[in-house]
Task: structure prediction
Amino acid sequence: MKILVCITHVPDTTSKIQFTANNTKFDTTGVQFIIGPYDDYALARAVELRDQTGGTLTALNVGEVETEPTLRKALAIGADDAIRVNAFPKDSYFVSKQIAHFAKEGGYDLIFMGRESIDFNGGMVHGMVGELLGMPSFSPVMKLELEGTTVKMAREIEGGKEYLEAQLPLIAGCQEPIAEWKIPNMRGIMSARTKPLLVVEPISQDTQAEASSYQLPPAKGSVKLVDKDHVSELVRLLKNEAKVL
Amino acid sequence: MSILVYLEQAAGKIKKTSLEAVSFAYALADKTGEGPVVALALGTLDANELAAVGQAGAAKVLHASDERLNAGVIQAHASAVAQAFESLGAKTLILAKSSLGDAVAARLAIKLQAGLVSNVVELPNLDAGFVVKRSIYTGKAFAQTTITTDNKILAIKKNAIDQKVDGAAAVVEAFEVAIPAADFASIITSTDRSTGEVLLPEADIVVSGGRGMKGPENWGMIEDLAKTLGAATGCSKPVSDIGWRPHHEHVGQTGVKVAPTLYIAVGISGAIQHLAGVNSSKCIVVINKDPEAPFFKAADYGIVGDAFEIVPQLTAALKADQ
Result:
């Protein structure tokens, strides 16, 4: 069993979002970067399945050199080797083309990733890679079990779950509670330093929908407090002032 | 040139978010001089339900009635939409962002060689190319995104546009699709969906409870308030982590992102990860006994006090007002 897990390198969920260069670049000042939280779930489940099947697990990231500590962390958590496609992830299409190419070269049975990156929230890469490789793709997957070559999954849908069965190979965009996040132990951190991390150049530069500028939402006005002894006043405000009832 | 809209259904009803996508397409057609708006409906649906899509702005509804399409089989839906897009010679596809819509749209982006933008929050700007505003960083910012391909797909965020309700009935036409058997190779074995309730990601009003509710046995008052408002119920991450409420009710950065007209948070302190899931709401009301709760800073209205007293009073006041 060969498993690939695709990792994003994204700002920590508590980061203050700001832009520079006339609102054309994300301001990384004081921002801590992490493995995307959804990718962390994917990685955790991938490690379990690798251990269960005795296969191999490769972590892949499309990013410039500053993403290497994030990939090393994936190695510390349990990936056997890593690939960094040396390019800024310009849009979902660009990233999907890279992943599809290197995934095909590697001949993976299972391709995991998070349901979406928490920076651009596209949630598109798993489907695009699936279509590029002619493989089924599923997301958001919250449970995944292997039974021979059959994969049993639960996918979250609006207001509930859908249970599915599909055959390998396939792609899963993951979310909790597919597995518990794994915290790297000291042995993992030590061994990650010497595990292979291959740097490859992108296979194409094509994009379809690149972001050109950014903006922050308008500042929120201050809260209007209603006295707890006059709850009906809130109803009046919601009706007549906010006009949301 | 026709603009195509992919409709989603649940149990024979077209989803409201899909009708918003139709209205978005209608407004886009008006802006670009394109049109008409043609919607594609998949699976078993009755004629009245299909014709009613016209009220939201569709001139025509193509209906592929193959009952295997009732379920959200991702690849089969993608193939059906691609066939409709090509047979119409459309250049633009509009759909509602959802767990199925995203999955189908991503495959179509490759099938149709179409630039795809998701989480779209308003009509595109056409002054210099085709520039779409979308929500990023889980609602904490926006990006202007330029689509450079001829074919385009926009996945619309809830509340990006007001749903049109005064259109004429649509012409309904049967549409034959030839879907490869391989598209049905993955089988949906069962679906476990809460029924009879308002679905959280699609709700206009959401009432959420946090740890301040002290236990699952106290959720009755949250449900009463939600029922009075016709709202969906949600919860904070700790609440779903402890198992007081199911995971699909978890609102936040790594849970459901909601964009209702009114969001009422009860006993939720307002961690940044929770705020990320609700910051697209039009109006936020916070009820919390701690005046220092960070949620008040993100709220439009607030009441400082005991939820166990305030929530039943609020429900009563709303009932009295109805």
Observations:
- The CA atoms of residues 194 and 248 of chain B lie 10 Å apart.
- The mean pLDDT of chain B is 94.
